[in-house]
Amino acid sequence: MIKKRYLAIPVIAIVLHLFLSNILYFSVEKLFLNVFHITENQFMKYSYLGEILIYIVIIIIFFAFYKFLWRKEETESRTEINSKDVAFSLIAGLGVSGISFVWIMMAEQIPALQKSIEAMNTGSKNIAGGNAFGTFMIAVVCAPIIEELLFRGIVFQSIRKVGPAWIAILISSVLFGAYHLNIVQATYATLMGIVAAIIYEKKKNLAFPIFVHFANNFVAMVQSFSPQKIDGIINIFSVIMMIPLGYIIYRLLKDKRAETENIQQF
Q1: CA gyration radius, the chain
Q2: C-alpha distances in angstroms, 136 versus 128, 193, 219?
């Protein structure tokens, strides 16, 4: 029964998130259009403010859900936020953006993926209606918080209760990728999920995968608002950052193996 409960939690959490997102956006739209009688053009222009509000509400709900689920495990070993690990997390996120760039370049050469790429590009341009502040708040601040709460804090940790770390990392990352409903995005989102989950498994602190997610999304946002020449420089920088990302993951996995060996010897 306990195992079934932990396996049901990820499904419930993902469905709840999708339901809340849609019902809240529908409610906000009806409130402004039908109650406040704001024109549709005005609503579309400032709809990002409503989206930010919706994200804040969902973050509060899922943070409460997260704390409720794991409230008895606050004493578990947990790395406190420190400048070194924050820096490593941000570097890892920059490296992930390099992986995303390489994958998208490859995907652009595959005819079957062209529609996915077009949909992805259209979606990124439509975030907050192209408003820089709205894009930053939605894509760079709010999305990393709620998605890490959901996929690392709830989904990963639930699966981890009934299986080994590698199973939890793989399943939570694949679900995170599939959640984006676009095969091109799903691929690099899955890879980012793996990086975030490894860091979470090691540090036991949700802040670090949030920083990974933040850095990756920040690069994507800067690129969407920067000239083509600057965009190229950012891509080169992101690809270079794949090297320290590889080193960080290697050290984390190496440290994990060392801990396992020490426990077995004991």
Answers
A1: 19
A2: 9, 21, 11
Q: Is 205 helix (H, G, I), strand (E, B) or coil?
A: coil
Instruction: Please tell me the predicted confidence (pLDDT) of residue 137.
Output: 94
3-state SS, residue 124: helix
Q: Calculate helix-pair angle for 114-126, 183-203, nearest 10 degrees.
A: 70
Taking only the tens place, the pLDDT of each residue in 157-168 is 999 999 899 999
For the record, the structure tokens of 116 come out as 């996915």
Q: What is the pLDDT of residues 60-119, one digit of tens each?
A: 999 999 999 887 665 557 889 999 999 999 999 999 999 999 999 999 999 999 999 888
Determine contact, residues 128/135, Cβ cutoff 8 Å: yes
How many angstroms separate the CA atoms of 114 and 208, rounded? 34
Return the closest-CA partner of residue 124 out of 49, 180, 198, 177.
180
Is residue 212 within 8 Å of residue 128, measured between CB atoms? no
Q: What percent of the chain has pLDDT over 90?
A: 63
Locus of tokens 């049901």? 8
Token pair listed for 46: 């400032």
Let me know how long the chain is: 266
Query: What is the DSSP annotation of 87-102?
Result: HHHHHHHHHHHHHHHH
Identify which of 93, 247, 106 has the alpha carbon closest to the alpha carbon of residue 183.
106
Query: CA–CA distance from 75 to each of 70, 202, 204 (Å)?
Result: 10, 15, 11
